[in-house]
Amino acid sequence: MKLNLLTTILLLVYCISHGQPLTQAAHQTNVSLEKQTINFNLKEKKSFFEQDAVKIALVPTIFFGASATVWNSRKDVKEVRNRYIPTFKYKFDDYMQYTPAAITFGLKAVGVKGRNNIKRTTISYAASMAVMAVLVNGLKYTTKVERPDGTSKNSFPSGHTAMAFANATFMDKEYGLVNPAYSIGGYGLATLTGVGRSLNNRHWTSDVLAGAGIGILSTQLAYFFVDKIYGNKGDNLSILSKYEGNTNPSFLSIKLGVTSGLESLVETEESESLNKLGWEAGLEGAYFFTKNWGLGGQIMVASFPFSENKITPQETPGLEAKVLSESMGYMTASIGPYYAIHFSEKWNLMLKALGGYSIGADGTVTLKALSGESYIPELVDGKVQIASYTPENVFQFTGGMALTYNLTDNLGATIYSDFNHSMSKITYELNDISIDQGQIPTNTVKGPFNYLSAGVRLTAYF
After folding, report:
1. Are residues 235 and 281 in the same domain?
2. Rg of the chain's alpha carbons, rounded to an integer?
3. Which residues contact 70 (CB under 8 A, 6 or more apart)?
4. Boundary-marking domain end, from 182, 217, 240
5. How far apart are CA 199 and CA 90, in angstroms?
6. How many CB atoms lie within 10 A of CB 258?
7. In the Cβ-directed half-sphere of 21, how many Cα atoms lie within 13 Å?
8. Transmembrane residues, as ranges (predicted)?
9. Helix axes 180-199 and 159-175, enclosed angle (nearest 10)
10. For residues 191 and 256, what is the distance between their CA atoms, to the nearest angstrom?
């Protein structure tokens, strides 16, 4: 009743001030109210990937899943590290983890406008550090995983990596809207920190991946709750709204896949291939000048294991043994053009043609005794090294395609397939124990080395 009376009074005032009949004004008011009611009832529902919980948890969940996936193979990754850079020891990761946060607060100090003013920025940062510290230390002293270097049992997860990615997400939150270069720089420094922890033999790969997920999650949660307290998404969003993002599909990504050789690197005397499915992992990115054309490259590590070949040496007929060869390992850096085909806003296909330099890792061939009573003095724990090999560094061509489904405007899930070609040259050097009289101790094998790779890629657009 009171509402009807108030409406009537307002209509009378409106009619007197505008010289409009009461019935016409009432009709327009009812129509306006009906439109507002209709608009309210037809409020657009958010899609799954636009839900706050999904935005906060999606990327961390992918990192946690990757950590679980590589858990059982983390020692294999350590083996690759030890073969390429066994003496690597540089402490840049101790300082680099703090760099994104230091730059963010430095920009605030010199007056560069970001998402929030300094007070709210400090509160959000303090909250993210608190969440990160609880998660990291709670897991470290509960799981008690031994470090790769054996110094302590608090390896999982990597605190340095968690700190680095929390700080990178902090920089992205504050200045990603101003310029995507801030986000790229922040996450690039965080990635180098994580890689450094693995190269310095302080953390397993699973530790680093879990640390990255925790760091991102900590800052995401902090900003979510602080935004709820303030009742908005930022202090300066009205100022930052004039900045337009890059609509071209420029991206950075993490890749993980399997490899299959099309030619045999090693064969038995019966020409039976000893190649098995291998693996590859690395980083890939490209900057697109238009919606279709871009320039980019990748840094990849690939490993090609061999099957175990059982033999009965002619010199020792009572001995059954098997030949073990270390996986053939390559690290490749390449660059070239990219072409993108857009099927819709959600789907795109990228083609690439890259050329680069491939560095091979030295390896050994070992004979392991399985059974028999023959005495071989060179055996140590049932094994003896019979040869070693050295791949020559070569040029490698890579062509491939990648199909991406865009989960959000900034993140996509990708499946890829690549063809890789190089002219390999591998030199084998036989140990004294395996050399017959008059036999040449070295042998060089030349020929094309082609392999296919396929896998998944987490793609972040900028």
Report:
1. no
2. 30
3. 77, 205, 206, 209
4. 240
5. 9
6. 13
7. 3
8. none
9. 180
10. 15
Q: Is the pTM of this model over 0.85?
A: no
- Distance in angstroms (rounded) separating the CA atoms of residues 24 and 38: 21
Alpha helices, DSSP H only, in 200-287? 205-230, 237-240
- Rounded-to-integer distance, Cα 324 and Cα 370, Å: 12
Torsion sign over Cα 143, 148, 152, 156: negative
pLDDT at 240 over 60: yes
Question: Looking at 316-362, which runs of residues are DSSP E strands?
Answer: 320-325, 328-342, 347-360
Rounded distance, CA 164 to CA 191, Å? 8
Q: Please enumerate in sequence order all residues whose Cβ is within 8 A of that of 204, keeping only pairs 6 or more positions apart, or say none.
A: 74, 77, 78, 145, 148, 155, 156, 198
Tokens at 356, concatenated:
């680069």
Is residue 245 a part of any domain in this protein?
Answer: no
Check whether residue 55 and residue 135 sit in a common domain.
yes
Question: CA-to-CA distance for 304 and 264, rounded, in angstroms?
Answer: 10
CA–CA distance, 183 with 74 (Å, rounded to integer): 29
Both tokens of 226, joined, read 């602080």
Q: What letter does residue 410 receive in the DSSP assignment?
A: S
Which range marks the domain in which residue 58 is found?
A: 51-240
More confident residue, 108 or 73: 108
Are residues 131 and 82 part of one domain? yes
pLDDT in tens, 297-346: 999 988 887 766 655 555 555 566 677 777 788 889 999 999 999 999 88
Please state the domain count of the chain.
Answer: 2
